[in-house]
């Protein structure tokens, strides 16, 4: 993954759109003051890739600029020579909710090479340097298109600008899966190995060895092998469980004898015969039940008809009373609705008269309240007029006072200015008199001394590196010689061990084949012995047989004895053979176990020798690389020195750097002592410059103060300042009294207006109330008139017999008539009247029906004249017997099916056992080889050794040859990795854990480890190829920063992209390509620089 471009808008301090490109050089510097938004660029990168930022993965709304509603981040990078763009947006909606999007785009067409071309290191680099020395960036951009662009780093590569969306990445789940597949790292791994965040550069060092193992596993992409191991081991466990299940099934299946099988068949035939007889009896009982039910129905109908005939004869005796009640019922139903209407309307008339009397009293009370309210409102209006008149007089007086106070304020301000100018002039004269004379000459002397020491300090760092590289080169040459000798010895031991292992492996394979053959023979003998014993036992218990089953001859006593003895002899011979073969199989198994143990031990020994030889071979190769690296580093240091120091090292470049002697430790100590005075001189120079600046500033301030004093005195009017101040105070007091009076008047006016408004609303409310009362009185008059008319119409509709009783009838009379009606209904008067009419014509049909039913009952046989329940009880008993027979039949059939399945199951299970056992052995071996103690451990150990080698090469240069890392011997497995300790060659002593290093040492180790991981990962199937260091250089001293600068420059050829962030101008000025970050009007602005 190689960063190419970042574009931000509305993101944190990036209110406006800013674009930063990294496609013109492998090394970039991002500089600017603290808080200018440099680190926010990498917040945008991690937010685009993982949805994370320094604040975590939540609160994405906090990333939106306070003056914007939407943030947008675009991150372009190349992976596997393909250019991709990740775009994220977050929008703040009106309801304070957040809407976000994400999408991956793929560049269509050819992708430009992310690294600078060869010409940049040759003529183009010289062209850049020449133009930079003259300060002409325009000429450089005209000849180098890849570096064109202003503050947003616009590229003019000429490539196609067409992009296509990667399908599905608009959904968060598929987007995250795409990032995991292409980048191969999560947020924690990315910020531990690729991005060293500000204040967290030692994040990987602060992790536990187990945490570092997780980071390393993701870099190595160990998850692929873990998945393969998991699949193989899951299959092995499944097959093992299947084998155990098959064994358990075999042990649980019994063998079936012929006698048992024949007994089950006979039992089935017997139960089927009994079941058929029971079924015939049930069919006969069902026919009898049907005839008994018909006889019972006929008897029930006969009793019902006889009852109806008796009820009809009884009803004819009460015919007169029933007819009288029916006539009175009809009369009451016709009259009662009209009676109810008359009584209800009379009640309404009485209620209306009571309401009319109450409304009349309410109207008189409201008229009295209206008169009192009108009088109070008239008085309030007169009071309000008087208050407003007084208010106008106070406002006129206040305006006059304010005019005079403004005139006095202007005069007093001029007096104050004169007094302040006199005090300032006197104070500045006193300060200027306390400063030393001629400070500019002191500044000039100190500047000359500082320039001399700066040149000396720059050369010391190069000399230190030359001395360290030369000493390390001597050590590496000696180490290479020892490593080569060890490599030859280990190779010889390995060849011998491999020959011994091959012979032992052949023996073990033969032992396994012999054991398998003997196990098979023992299994066959066991089956034959069991069969012979069963035949002997079967013949011993045989009785009632007339012929021999084995030969078919008559079973005479002599033949019986001979056959029994023969079978016993065969069983004994088979058991003896089984014992012999069983002992031979056990002996073969023990031999196989011993050879297998020896084979595993020798395999482990051979593997250890192989690992040791690989380590020795890697040490030899690393030593050769170190010799080449250190020689090249010495050459670079030599040519970086000025001629004065070159002459001391040698007139020409030494052919053998180990024989050069300058500089030695004494020379470096002497030069360092001289250069250490640079900070003291700088402090003196800053102090002298501050005094000179202060003297010039005070001189200018004195002149300005004197000019202000002269101008202030010219504009001062005649008069005594004391009397003017007294008049000003008096006018202020008078104005205060007028203001208080105005405030009180305004308050009283407001209260009076509020009271008048309240009285006016009360008056309106009373008028509305009087109108409502008049309406209600009119409504009651109309209601009484309508009720009277309704009563008259109802009287006319009544019969003449009811006219007189209703003249004085009330609610009680109506209730009495209603009770009489309800009583007649409750007696069933209408039903009785209907039954009476039916009885008068139905007696003869009932008598004829009785005669017919008696004839049908006499036709039934005596055994059919039973209750159906008795017959059903007999049927139930017979069915219960049938169910018992069916159950016995099902049990016998099920037993037979079970016996049929035993032999088939045993045959199938034996065949399946052999197939599963072979597959289980294959997956067991595969899971062991893919496990964390074999292939996974080998990959992790190989990766951490290479990373530490790369990191030590960098750390050696960063620490001036003082520090080096080494791995603590890890336990078996991959749970721990990069368990590091660090040693100091200068101080000596034992190595210490990296957690106990000083701040600057930890930073050097962290940077070296990150660069080592980057170099290692750049050679993997998903290379990282980049490293980002966000601040942290401030913990280094001057010499350490110079070494760091040189080392970062040297790494251009190892990584495609190195991004640095620093607020230190001295450090940032050492790099030719970069961007400057500034805050303008609260927003970050980015500008490109080329030196």
What tags apply to this protein structure?
six-stranded mixed β-sheet, flat, 1091 residues, Rossmann fold, Helix Hairpins, alpha/beta, 24 helices, single chain, 15 strands, six-stranded antiparallel β-sheet
Counted by DSSP, the helix tally is 24
User: How would you name the CATH homologous superfamily of the domain at 439-659?
Assistant: Helix hairpin bin
- Percent of residues in helical segments? 55-70%
- The CATH topology of the domain at 439-659, please? Helix Hairpins
Termini separation comes to 27 Å
Q: Rg to the nearest angstrom?
A: 59 Å
> Major β-sheet, in short?
6 strands, antiparallel
% residues in beta strands: 5-15%
Q: Strand tally, please?
A: 15
- Using the alpha-carbon principal axes, give the shape: flat
Mean pLDDT: 78
Q: Quick one: CATH class of the domain at 439-659? A: Mainly Alpha
* Weakly predicted, low-confidence segments: 115-159
Helix and strand composition category: alpha/beta
Oligomer: single chain
Arrangement of strands in the largest sheet: 2-1-4-5-6-7
If classified by CATH, what would the architecture of the domain at 439-659 be? Orthogonal Bundle
């Amino acid at each position: 993954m190689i960063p190419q471009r970042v574009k931000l808008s509305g993101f944190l301090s990036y209110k406006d759109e800013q674009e930063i490109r990294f496609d013109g050089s492998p090394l970039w510097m991002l500089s600017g003051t603290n808080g200018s938004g440099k680190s926010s660029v990498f917040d945008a990168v991690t937010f685009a890739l993982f949805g994370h930022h320094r604040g975590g993965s939540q609160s994405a709304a906090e990333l939106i600029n306070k003056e914007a509603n939407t943030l947008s981040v675009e991150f372009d990078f190349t992976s596997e020579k393909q250019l991709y763009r990740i775009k994220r947006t977050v929008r703040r909606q009106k309801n304070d909710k957040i809407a976000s999007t994400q999408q991956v785009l793929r560049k269509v067409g050819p992708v430009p090479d992310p690294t600078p071309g060869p010409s940049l290191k040759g003529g183009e680099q010289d062209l850049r340097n020449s133009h930079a020395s003259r300060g002409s960036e325009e000429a450089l951009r005209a000849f180098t298109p890849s570096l064109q662009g202003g503050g947003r780093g616009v590229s003019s590569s000429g490539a196609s600008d067409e992009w296509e969306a990667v399908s599905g990445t608009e959904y968060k789940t598929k987007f995250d899966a795409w990032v995991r597949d292409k980048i191969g790292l999560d947020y924690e791994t990315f910020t531990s190995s690729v991005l060293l965040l500000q204040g967290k550069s030692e994040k990987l060092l602060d992790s536990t060895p187990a945490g570092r193992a997780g980071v390393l596993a993701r870099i190595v992409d160990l998850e692929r092998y873990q998945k393969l191991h998991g699949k193989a081991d899951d299959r092995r466990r499944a097959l093992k469980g299947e084998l155990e299940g098959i064994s358990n099934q075999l042990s649980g299946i019994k063998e079936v004898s012929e006698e048992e099988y024949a007994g089950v068949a006979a039992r089935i035939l017997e139960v089927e015969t009994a079941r058929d007889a029971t079924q015939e009896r049930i069919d006969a009982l069902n026919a009898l039940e049907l005839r008994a039910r018909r006889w019972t129905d006929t008897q029930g109908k006969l009793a019902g008809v006889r009852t109806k005939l008796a009820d009809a004869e009884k009803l004819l005796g009460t015919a007169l009373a029933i007819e009288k009640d029916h006539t009175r019922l009809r009369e009451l139903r016709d009259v009662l609705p009209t009676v109810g209407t008359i009584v209800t309307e009379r009640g309404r008339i009485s209620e209306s008269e009571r309401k009319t009397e109450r409304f009349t009293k309410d109207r008189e009370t409201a008229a009295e309240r209206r008169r009192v309210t009108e009088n109070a409102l008239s008085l309030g209006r007169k009071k309000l007029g008087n208050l407003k008149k007084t208010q106008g007089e106070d406002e006129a007086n206040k305006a006059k006072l304010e005019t005079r106070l403004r005139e006095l304020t202007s005069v007093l301000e001029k007096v104050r200015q004169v007094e302040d100018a006199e005090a300032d002039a006197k104070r500045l004269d006193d300060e200027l008199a306390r400063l030393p004379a001629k400070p500019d000459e002191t500044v000039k002397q100190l500047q000359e001394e500082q320039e001399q020491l700066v040149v000396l300090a720059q050369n010391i760092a190069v000399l230190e590196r030359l001395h360290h590289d030369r000493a390390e080169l001597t050590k590496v040459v000696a180490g290479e010689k020892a490593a080569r000798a060890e490599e030859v010895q280990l190779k010889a031991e390995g060849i011998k061990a491999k020959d011994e292992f091959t012979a032992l492996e052949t023996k073990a394979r033969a032992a396994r084949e012999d054991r398998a053959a003997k196990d098979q023979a023992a299994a066959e003998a066991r089956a034959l012995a069991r069969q012979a014993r069963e035949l002997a036992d079967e013949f011993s218990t045989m009785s009632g047989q007339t012929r021999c089953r084995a030969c078919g001859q008559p079973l005479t006593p002599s033949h019986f004895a001979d056959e029994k003895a023969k079978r016993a002899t065969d069983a004994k011979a088979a058991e003896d053979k089984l014992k012999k073969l069983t002992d031979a199989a056990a002996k073969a198994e023990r031999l196989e176990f011993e050879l297998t143990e020896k084979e595993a031990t020798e395999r482990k020994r051979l593997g250890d020798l192989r690992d040791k030889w690989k380590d020795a071979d890697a040490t030899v190769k690393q030593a050769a690389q170190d010799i080449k690296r250190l020689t090249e580093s010495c050459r670079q240091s030599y040519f970086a020195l000025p001629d004065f120091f070159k002459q001391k090292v040698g007139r020409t470049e030494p052919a053998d750097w180990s024989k050069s002697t300058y500089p030695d430790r004494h020379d470096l100590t002497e030069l360092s002592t001289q250069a250490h005075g640079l900070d003291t001189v700088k402090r003196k120079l800053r102090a002298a410059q501050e005094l000179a600046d202060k003297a010039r500033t005070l001189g200018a301030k004195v002149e300005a103060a004197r000019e202000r004093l002269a101008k202030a005195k010219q504009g001062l009017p005649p008069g005594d300042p004391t009397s003017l101040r007294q008049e000003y105070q008096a006018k202020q007091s008078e104005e205060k009294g007028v203001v208080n009076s105005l405030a009180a008047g305004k308050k009283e006016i407001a209260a009076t207006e509020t009271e008048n408004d309240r009285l006016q609303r009360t008056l309106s409310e009373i008028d509305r109330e009087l109108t409502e009362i008049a309406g209600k009185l009119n409504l009651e008059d109309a209601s009484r008139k309508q009720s009277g008319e309704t009563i008259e119409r109802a009287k006319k509709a009544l019969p003449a017999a009811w006219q007189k009783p209703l003249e004085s009838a009330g609610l009680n009379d109506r209730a009495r008539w209603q009770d009489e009606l309800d009583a007649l209904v409750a007696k069933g008067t209408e039903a009785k009247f209907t039954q009476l009419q039916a009885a008068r014509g139905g007696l003869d049909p009932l008598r004829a029906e009785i005669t017919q039913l008696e004839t049908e009952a006499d036709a039934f046989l005596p055994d059919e004249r039973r209750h159906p329940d008795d017959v059903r009880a007999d049927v139930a008993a017979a069915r219960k017997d049938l169910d018992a027979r069916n159950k016995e039949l099902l049990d016998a059939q099920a037993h037979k099916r079970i016996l049929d399945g035993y032999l088939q199951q045993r045959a199938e299970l034996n065949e399946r056992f052999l197939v599963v056992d072979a597959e289980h052995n294959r997956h067991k071996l595969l899971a062991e080889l893919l496990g964390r103690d074999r292939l996974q451990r080998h990959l992790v150990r190989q990766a951490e050794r290479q990373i530490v080698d790369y990191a030590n090469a960098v750390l050696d240069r960063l620490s001036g040859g003082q520090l080096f890392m080494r791995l603590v011997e890890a336990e078996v497995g991959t749970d721990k990795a990069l368990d590091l300790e660090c040693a100091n060659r200068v101080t000596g002593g034992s190595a210490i854990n990296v957690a106990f290093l000083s701040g600057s040492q930890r930073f050097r180790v962290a940077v070296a480890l990150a660069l080592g991981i980057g170099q290692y990962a750049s050679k993997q199937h998903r290379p990282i190829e980049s490293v980002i260091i966000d601040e942290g250089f401030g913990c280094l001293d001057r010499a350490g920063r110079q070494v760091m600068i040189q080392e970062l420059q040297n790494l251009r050829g190892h990584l495609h992209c190195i991004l640095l962030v620093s607020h230190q101008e001295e450090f940032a000025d050492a790099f030719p390509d970069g961007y400057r970050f500034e805050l303008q009007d609260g927003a970050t602005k980015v500008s490109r620089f080329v030196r």
